[in-house]
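#data-curation
PF: Archiving a pair of folding outputs for the training set. Convention for this channel: one message per protein, sequence first, structure tokens after, nothing in between. First:
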Amino acid sequence: MKRVLLGFPFFLVAFFAGYFLVPEIQTILPNVGKGDQTNSEAAPVVPSADDLLSESPWLTPEFTDVELDEEASKTSMLMELVSNGKVAFCTNEPKKAERKWLGLFKRGERFSLERRSVDFGPVESIDFGNFSSMNFRGSREAVFILSDQGTLRPGPVRTLYLKPNLTHDQLFYDGMELGYSRIFRLDDTDYVIRIAPATLRGGNSASVLLIEQGSRSQIIWFKTFFGSPGDIGELEWVGDLDGDGRLDLQLSHYAQNGGQFESLLFLSSFAKKGRLVGFAAFYSARCRA
């Protein structure tokens, strides 16, 4: 009986508070409790790339109507990446595969381009296609290996940058995002590699990769925005591979359609007139044969 009597005053306070205060709250918040839940149930609005461009001054396109030269992207030189001395080469018939290759080798702080004869192991099938292991001398010291088309000559290679091997301390993908800019000096010449916002021919927003030297500037790669600007890829290697005293570079990225890992090599000796580099070789983790 005492518990009932002690609880009665609290009941009265709660009753009158609810009776007088709820209408006032409904007046201040007219959508609450009146059957109109449109705003609270609506899906969150994700800004488009165009909205981001208009709202963020640093995303204002620096270049417009961008289009890469498709003819310049054609190459006959193959590139294979070496991981812990191992290479998986896409082929159904190893006996017919190219035997003569040029490898970029690293020994201490020295780099060199060296010819190699390659033997192939048995064919193995995995999700990305049929592959055969490439076996050649000094494979554990190789950075990458190129099919020998006679366009490059063996010899010392000046290297300005080589991406460090991933360790347990590097748990993230270190991509080049908008705003990235880095200067590389080869002899007495400075080259700038940077990422800038742009719009492509057709109106899509994209990040573009540029190489600049003095008054010359060239867009060599781009990646379209999907919802928000992301990274365009990673620099793998920078230096002078072809020995002409001008900058060359290797870029890696994950393809947007399919998601496979890809790598591209740009060489100054492959450049068209008035340009700084040309597309020289391509690698894809997905079998292209």
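PF: Second:
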Amino acid sequence: MMRIVFYTSPPGASIFLATPGRETWAGHSGDWIVVTPSQLTARYGLVYTIRAPGYFPIMQRVPRFSFEHTDTVRYPDKGAIELTPVIRISLHRGPRTVALVGTVVIGVLAVFLSWRRVQMAVRSARALSSSDRHDRT
């Protein structure tokens, strides 16, 4: 019987055997997962998807040669597979956050409108000076 154990950060992530078109739950990181010989006949070894709540899923390929000289494999050899956390921004933090966001939006809008008004004034001044030059000639 062949077995593999995955080590992840965070620990306890769900491990799924990925085959073309489907994923089959295999166990949790830190626990031994049984590998059958039919799974190892795959050309590229074993492919697993690792999932944990609040983290992006990650795919890992375990090469066939990992099982050539042993029936038990630790993956990775040292350390742990680091999952990347999903960053969520929430505006429901309280009235101060809503007031701050509202103030920033109003400030940006005021700057934009002021800039636009200045641009229109500059264009008008250029048009007037251009027409003055035509009148003099």
